[in-house]
């Protein structure tokens, strides 16, 4: 069974830090993933005050602390984040300002995590296919270009068809009836 839950937390001067750690609770025995979609500055935020949200999580073998949102009334009231945290624990801290800052996202459980990853893989495959089509288009375009790199025009292509064996153009002459002779016949003369 797979589940998806809304996740939200409010950071403020009275609640500066929040830790997401569902693995520490027995109620979530399956795999977990946290997706933080957006950080919003609440309507009660103080003007001219920077509100900085920092995240602390594991990165390979060590812990990392990094700001993920800087919000200010009158400038930036919201930030689209789209950050994934596949491993718990994750700690969000309001390191500057008094907030309130609302973090919203999704908590994915169990098989849904795998389905989400499958969707990401499908998107990557579609992008790869589109890039493959783009490269095929470029190859076709390069075939239409001459050695100078400029695109051939119909005149250029006609001129190439009329070239003789050494790259020289065959002379066109009119016969007695006013018709042009074949360039191949002129090249043999």
Structure write-up:
This protein has helices spanning 111-143, 154-161, 183-188, and strands at 3-11, 17-20, 32-41, 51-59, 62-71, 78-85, 90-96, 101-109. With 189 residues, it is α+β, with helices and mostly antiparallel strands. The relative contact order is 0.18.
TL;DR?
The chain has helices spanning about 110-145, 155-160, 185-189, and strands at about 5-10, 15-20, 30-40, 50-60, 60-70, 80-85, 90-95, 100-110. The protein has about 190 residues and is of the alpha+beta class.
Please give a handful of descriptors for the protein shown.
four-stranded antiparallel beta sheet; 189 residues; single chain; 25% helix; 8 strands; alpha+beta
Question: Topology of this protein?
Answer:
Layout: E1 3-11, E2 17-20, E3 32-41, E4 51-59, E5 62-71, E6 78-85, E7 90-96, E8 101-109, H1 111-143, H2 154-161, H3 183-188
Antiparallel strand pairs: 1-8, 2-7, 3-6, 3-8, 4-5, 4-7
Pfam family, one: Nucleoplasmin
Main location: nucleus
Protein name: Nucleoplasmin core domain-containing protein
What structural category arises from helix and sheet content?
alpha+beta
Low-confidence stretches: none
Q: Specify the overall morphology.
A: globular
Order of strands, main sheet, comes to 1-8-3-6
How large is the count of helical segments?
3
Mean pLDDT: 75
Total strands: the figure is 8
**Beta-strand residue fraction:** 25-35%
């Amino acid at each position: 069974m797979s589940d998806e839950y809304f996740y939200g937390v409010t950071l403020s001067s009275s609640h500066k830090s929040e830790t997401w750690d569902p693995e520490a609770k027995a109620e979530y025995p399956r795999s977990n993933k946290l997706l933080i979609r957006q950080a919003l500055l609440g309507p009660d935020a103080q003007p001219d005050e920077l509100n900085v949200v920092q995240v602390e999580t594991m990165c390979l073998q060590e812990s990392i602390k990094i700001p993920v949102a800087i919000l200010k009334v009158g400038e930036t009231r919201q930030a689209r984040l789209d950050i994934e945290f596949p491993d718990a624990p994750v700690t969000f801290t309001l390191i500057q300002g008094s907030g309130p800052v609302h973090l919203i996202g999704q908590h994915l459980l169990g098989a849904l995590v795998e389905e989400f990853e499958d969707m990401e893989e499908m998107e990557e495959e579609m992008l790869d296919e589109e890039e493959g089509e783009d490269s095929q288009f470029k190859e076709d375009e390069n075939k239409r270009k001459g050695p100078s790199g400029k695109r051939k025009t119909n005149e250029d292509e006609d001129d190439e068809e009329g070239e003789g064996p050494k790259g020289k153009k065959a002379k066109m002459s009119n016969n007695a009836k006013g018709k042009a002779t074949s360039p191949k016949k002129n090249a043999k003369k």
